[in-house]
Specification:
Length: 259
Amino acid sequence: MVRSFEMLPLRFRPSQACWLAASLLLTATAASGGPRKRTEPQLQLSEAKFEGFAAGCTVELDAAAAGKTDAKGEFTIEELNPGDHYLHVDCPGQDPQTFFISPKPSQQVEISPKPPAAKSSPLEAAETHRELQRLVERATEERTAGQFDQAISDLRHATLLDPANPDLHRELGITFLLMKEWERARIEYLEAIKQDDTEPESHNGLGYSLEKLGELERAAYEFRVATQLDPDDATYREQYIEALTLLEAQKDKEKKKKR
């Protein structure tokens, strides 16, 4: 089951609203007329090329280490799955930078350093805060009305204004779960945890998306973390126990196939 949240003005705090029923992933069925050899379509992978950075910068892809820039400040991530990704570049003596990309198949995305951010005045900071509130409130209304694309657009805009806000990524994760776009939800929850790994709801959402993607062992781990972070929430324990049950059933099935 998926927990539904009510988006609240900054900082956001997940509500304890009721859980939504979620459907199981559709599974492919064999064609009639006897077994046939199926040729899977070849995935056209993308590429991310980093240029103009300092030497020895650490690069992360979706919260996992990807490599380092070379002596020329360059690095390339090859065989990148098309779709949403978050890239983090941490150069010695500089502030870390975050990049969101969503490459198409066979596309090469070029990444270059962002210019230093100008310091905001108190008035500009207040205006940014009001704009964030407006975007969040509008995204909430749009999501409730089933206008998911508009809600995603507003939340993406909000992340540009406050890129280190994990609550915005959790809200994007919730939106993708409601759309049953499990991989996109996984990416957003990973980013939320990258920004703040102490929020149990982020681990719970990541666990749910992983479960839907068939990664039961990793899902059980995330549910366990959520339970440890908030032992009083019975829902987290239920999710954890359910994931363990599914994982055990999967292992039993694999054992029977080997016999």
